DNA sequence: ACACCTTAGTTCGAATTTGAACAACAGGGT
DNA sequence: ACCCTGTTGTTCAAATTCGAACTAAGGTGT
């Protein structure tokens, strides 16, 4: 932290663009999902992640990682969605501590119902705004960014157990 | 919503990349700011926005727009920061209803203190990960995305008053 | 001056999120 | 078999967020 290397104009534009776009997009998605499907974006993501896996069920920790949320946050949401009948908890045979979150028939139904409107909004706010070239570079760039951050988190966690 | 145009592989990569990167970056920023400056990202952004304007003060609504947050959310945060001495409320001369949020000396100090570490993290998670070309395209892309969303929000607001 | 519609900020209650603390279990090495 | 360390998911309190309702002004047209 000796001499901070401040951001030049172009770097600042990229950073501000990223932060502002994230917030605006999140706000729009939240509003659209709530209005047309009665779901929060978090809940929708839970449905998506579960539906994307062969048997429609994932371990809590695994699911929390994919959602990029805290374990306690997931516990809360799964409880809510369980009350709403979209998800069911199932215990794990090989590990007594383990809990699977599993999509119910109702969960599939809600997802099928919500997906078209969500995808349309995603196109509207991001995908259809950009050219193919821009999309390609965006995917590549943010994929790399994500990979590095995941790796960094793993490193912190490994050291973090006993703090050195 | 007739026939949903699903996302192809490349579009999906861009979208997932965006969502995942947003969450990971936000988590990292939050952690870094809390640890090294005792600030939330929201609070840091308030300091930044106020510092970026000539007299270090903005109307509440204006500030809320720049932060992409709700008015009530801003009221809460400004109250917190006022208690912490980083910000001061000042009433507006030309409009009795108006309220300015103004950076205090302490606010400037906190910002100067926090900025280097924040910028370093921003470089670490995004800027220094990408090439110049990628940065240029990212800024351009997300700038356009933001502009369109802002415009869409304005249109909704104008119609929204009496709901057509 | 008087209705009328919009705007500015705050207040309120409800929903969500997080990290720390916790209890129970898994796994490995001795 | 046993101790030690790391995991798993939940609980808890505290902080934050949002939208709707509300108060108080602005601004406009008549």
From TrEMBL, chains A, B:
SMART domains documented for this protein: HTH_MARR
InterPro entries: HTH_MarR-typ (IPR000835), MarR/SlyA-like (IPR039422), WH-like_DNA-bd_sf (IPR036388), WH_DNA-bd_sf (IPR036390)
HTH marR-type domain boundaries: 1-147
Gene3D superfamilies: Winged helix-like DNA-binding domain superfamily/Winged helix DNA-binding domain (1.10.10.10)
One Pfam family it belongs to: MarR_2
PANTHER family membership: MARR FAMILY REGULATORY PROTEIN, TRANSCRIPTIONAL REGULATOR, MARR FAMILY
Name this polypeptide is given: MarR family transcriptional regulator
Organism: Kitasatospora cystarginea
Top-level taxonomy: Bacteria, Bacillati, Actinomycetota, Actinomycetes, Kitasatosporales
């Amino acid at each position: 932290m000796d001499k901070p290397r401040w951001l030049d104009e172009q770097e600042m534009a990229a950073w501000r663009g990223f932060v502002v776009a994230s917030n605006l997009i999140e706000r729009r998605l939240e509003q659209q999902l709530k209005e047309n499907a009665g779901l929060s974006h978090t809940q929708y993501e839970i449905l998506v992640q579960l539906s994307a896996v062969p048997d429609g069920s994932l371990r809590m920790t695994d699911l929390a990682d994919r959602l990029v949320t805290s374990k306690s946050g997931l516990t809360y949401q799964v409880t809510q969605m369980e009350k709403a009948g979209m998800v069911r908890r199932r215990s794990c045979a090989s590990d007594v501590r383990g809990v699977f979150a599993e999509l119910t028939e109702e969960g599939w139904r809600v997802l099928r119902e919500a997906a078209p409107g969500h995808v349309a909004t995603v196109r509207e706010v991001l995908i259809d705004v950009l050219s193919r070239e821009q999309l390609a570079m965006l995917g590549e760039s943010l994929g790399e960014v994500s990979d590095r951050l995941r790796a960094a988190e793993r490193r912190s966690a490994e050291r973090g157990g006993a703090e050195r």
